[in-house]
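Researcher: Please predict.
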Amino acid sequence: MKASTPILVTGSHRSGSTWAGRMLSAAPHVGYIHEPFNVDIKISVNPKPFKHQFQYIYEKNSEDYKAVLDGILHFRYPLAVNLGKIRTFMDGADLIRDQTLFLFYRLNNARPLIKDPLAFFSVEWLSRNFNMDVLVMIRHPAAFCSSLKIKNWRFDFNQLLKQPLLMDRYLEKFAEEIHEHAEHKTNLLDQAILLWNCIHHTVNIYRKNHPEWLFVRHEDVSLDPVNQFKMIYDDFGLEFTRRVEKKIKASCGAHNPVEQEDGREFFRDSKRNIYNWKERLTSDEIRRIKRKTSNIATLFYSQDEW
């Protein structure tokens, strides 16, 4: 039954997965779980942090992870593990917040929703082993690159190279470039381009192999949030209430800023946000992104969307 089916919201980071996860968890009886695959979260719902960012889980190594994910999906909070990590007041506040939420979700028999772009390469295993409804968010390459640029987010490509089965399964065609970026300090924009290519090449594989999953472009949701989210709600068997619609409108209406503001990260004018990369990037950077992503980008975006 849909009421007990876990939901996974993933895709590339900076693809709107957090926005989508928050809007879907506004549905009655849904419990939001934040990024159990993220190894940089100190006070985590994951009692056994994974070894790598973008951890690849498959049948041969699943024994190390299946019980952990099962506990998370049943809202079993790792209190003892996190108590040993507390060093600051904020650490304690995070623990109290997460433990309280998990207890509330468990007592109310909530439907678990994991929001985690870092679970992206393990989606097939997660879907197969936990019978999950899957939403994969897609983002324009220029928007993705511009977002990493303003955040100054670099990526250690050794996180991929240390997972040879991941490289063989999805990323073999990028092996030479990944080695280059892992061995040398490279340009941030080129890092973003390669990461976008790696992720969206895999999105295309998923699209071919899993027609039962939902694949949604960030731009389409941004243009028509209420109807797009209602479509996702209907597909996942979620109750689309007036409260949900009001929350969606509040998060993305024209009264919100175009760019992210501290303390209001999930409130933006979604329509104007679509092309803010044109202000963030130079014309040379846009041409470079377009040229280096063209083989994959044309699978998702037309020339008019540049």
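Model: The chain has two domains: 1-139+221-251, 141-209+275-306.
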